[in-house]
Amino acid sequence: MIYLDSAATSFYKPQSVSRAMRCALAEMTSPGRGGHPAAMRAADTVYECREAAAALFVMSDPTRVVFTMNATHALNLAIRTCVRPGDAVVVSGYEHNSVTRPLHALGAEVRVAAGRLFSPEAVLEDFERLLPGAKCAVCTHVSNVFGFVLPVEEIAALCAAQGVPLIVDASQSAGVLDVRLSALRAAFIAMPGHKSLLGPQGTGLLLCGMDAEPLLYGGTGSQSALQTMPEELPERLEAGTHNVPGIAGLQAGLRYVSPRLADIRAQETRLLRQLAEGARDLPDLELFYDESARSQVGVLSMRSRTLDSEAFAERLAEHGVAVRAGLHCAPLGHRSAGTIETGTVRFSMSPFNTEQEITEAIRILHRVL
After folding, report:
1. CA 263, CA 221: separation in Å to the nearest integer?
2. Is-contact 334 322, C-beta < 8 A?
3. Last residue of some domain: 259, 278, 308?
């Protein structure tokens, strides 16, 4: 199988990830639930993972790294802290349902800064026009459908100038691009562990630039006499037993990614360009590709002019190429790009894909179409 669906979940992981998870299962219990060696080993691993994340995302205080089940969980924590029913919230035109559905459930007034695909300037202009009077802004760093890199640094500066808290969805950028909480001056940055951070499913992170309100209430292993959640982070947001094997695996993923960040982006950009150049001469195919490669990383969407996207992906799967078709849980992005009626077939790279795999995927594309 040629796996090109890493924007959904990274399939290939460093061997250290599975080793760390096996070790946690064999030697650790739960942090804060005892002073015996198994509990203390768990506590050390959990804190060391916080430290690894704080180092990668340039945070001085590891306690402001909160573990979540996934990016959706993290985004719900952030959104429900910053947004009240009826609030005006500016979002980019490329947001995932993990942003738009919580806002809809809260009854927020959603203002969409659509902007043309691969035009950071157009997105920025829309944010500048829509921000006055807003109570919050939410922006994905990279579109999960098109790999479009949005101008989050400039958007963050606009938000800071107007005193609007910014929530950044780094689901597709953490582990590929330089993500820094202090540089973005964001209220929160949310991300999964199972994509480009190369950790296991069931893990995520919320980087907290401000205090947050809990979604879950329960035991934290500390301050047990209180009948309210502790005020301090991270305990305030981490009710219940930690996913220690998952966190151990995530720590191993962070340690793998951290010294290789620039190499990972360069590798994925090379593979993206190779795939686009190999597919562009197919007359039946429409590519969503930034020729300059300045505003796109690791993800290439395409659609056939004659073949349904789902059928297209099924044919690729029959030939051993794993991709994803449809709306990718991001109908807003498809509306912005004009693909809402058809969806797209999405190819997404990882640092473990090779040029030989892309060459074979191009050959299969030509055969299928």
Report:
1. 40
2. no
3. 259
The percent of residues in the chain predicted with pLDDT above 90, rounded, is 95
Q: Tell me, yes or no, whether 44 and 177 share the same domain.
A: yes
Sheet of 285-288: strand order equals 285-288, 299-304, 344-348, 324-326
2 membership: H or E segment, kind and range: strand 2-3
Buried b (16+ CB within 10 A) or exposed e, 162-186: eebbbbbbbbbbbbbbebebeebeb
State the DSSP H helix or E strand holding residue 168, giving kind and residue range, or none if neither. strand 166-169
Would you place residue 293 in the very low, low, confident or very high pLDDT band (cuts 50, 70, 90)? Answer: confident
Q: Which residue has the tokens 């301090």?
A: 232
Write the CATH number for 317. Answer: 3.90.1150.10
Which residues constitute the domain of residue 339?
2-11+261-368
Last residue of a domain, one of 240, 259, 278: 259
User: What CATH number is associated with residue 98?
Assistant: 3.40.640.10
Among candidate residues 294, 274, 290, the one with its CA nearest the CA of residue 354:
274
Domain shared by 21 and 94, yes or no:
yes
CB 346 within 8 A of CB 172: no
307 pLDDT above the threshold of 90: yes
Is there a single domain that holds both residue 237 and residue 349?
no
- 248 and 211, same structural domain? yes
Q: In the beta sheet, which residues pair with residue 205?
A: 67, 191
Q: Are residues 252 and 281 in the same domain?
A: no
Percent over 70 (pLDDT), the chain? 100
Q: Which alpha helices (H) appear in the chain, and where do they start and end?
A: 15-27, 37-56, 71-82, 97-106, 120-130, 152-162, 181-184, 244-257, 261-279, 309-318, 331-337, 355-368
Same domain membership, residue 351 and residue 277: yes
Q: In terms of domains, do 337 and 248 share one?
A: no
Provide the pLDDT confidence category of residue 222 given band limits of 50, 70 and 90. Answer: confident
Contact 49, 248 (CB under 8 A): yes
Amino acid 360: pLDDT? 98
Number of domains in the chain: 2
DSSP state, residue 237: G
